[in-house]
Design goal:
This protein is of the alpha+beta class. The chain has two domains: about 10-60; about 65-155, no CATH class. It contains seven helices and five strands. It has helices at about 10-15, 15-25, 30-40, 40-60, 100-105, 125-135, 145-155; strands at about 65-70, 70-80, 80-90, 115-120, 140. It has a five-stranded antiparallel beta sheet with strand order 4-3-2-1-5, sandwiched between helices. A hairpin with a 2-residue loop joins strand 1 (about 65-70) and strand 2. The longest helix has 22 residues, at about 40-60. The chain is elongated and about 65 Å long. Keywords: Aminoacyl-tRNA synthetase, Ligase. InterPro entries: DUF6495. This is Histidyl-tRNA synthetase. GO terms for molecular function: aminoacyl-tRNA ligase activity.
Length: about 160
């Protein structure tokens, strides 16, 4: 398995897609139920393959990631050959994961306690695995509104 297995909740949300996946494997509902009972390792393998397919599709479509922690905001634009990151670092005790802290940042972008930096980074040989590792560390896929805003602000 390349990524991680989807959670029970995610699999429930993707129920119809999973049925379609099983159909492409020529596995009927009865055969799936039989697999789960009599060959659970095979059923687990099918879940792993399906999970990897879903992750691969989501990662291929992902254009932006955000990772926000109490004193840092990392905004990524996932380009075709490299990623562009904008980092916002707070040098005070404001926690931007709270409503009050985020509002403070919005109102004090030019404060001396707010530092901006940016960089470009090449992908490894496996671009999607690079993206996935960032998600595992807490980044989330977004539409890029924050990245676009800060990119316009600092460039």
């Amino acid at each position: 398995m390349k990524y991680t297995r989807l959670t029970k909740e995610q699999l429930e949300e993707l129920h119809q897609e999973f049925i379609n996946f099983l159909a492409t494997q020529s596995i009927t509902a009865d055969e799936w139920n039989n697999l789960k009972v009599n060959k659970p390792e095979m059923a687990e393998m099918e879940l792993d393959v399906f999970s990897d397919l879903i992750w691969e599709g989501a990662l291929n479509k992902a254009e932006y990631l955000e990772h926000i922690s109490p004193m840092h905001m990392y905004l990524f634009h996932l380009g075709a050959d490299k990623m562009h990151v904008i980092a916002i670092i707070l040098k005070n005790d404001v926690d931007i994961t709270t409503k009050e802290g985020y509002n403070w940042l919005r109102e004090n972008l030019m404060d001396e306690n707010v530092e901006f930096s940016q960089a470009k980074k090449e992908y490894s040989d496996d671009k999607n695995l690079d993206k996935f590792k960032m998600i595992e560390k807490g980044a989330v896929i977004t539409k890029g509104d924050l990245f676009k805003y800060f990119d316009k602000l600092i460039n």
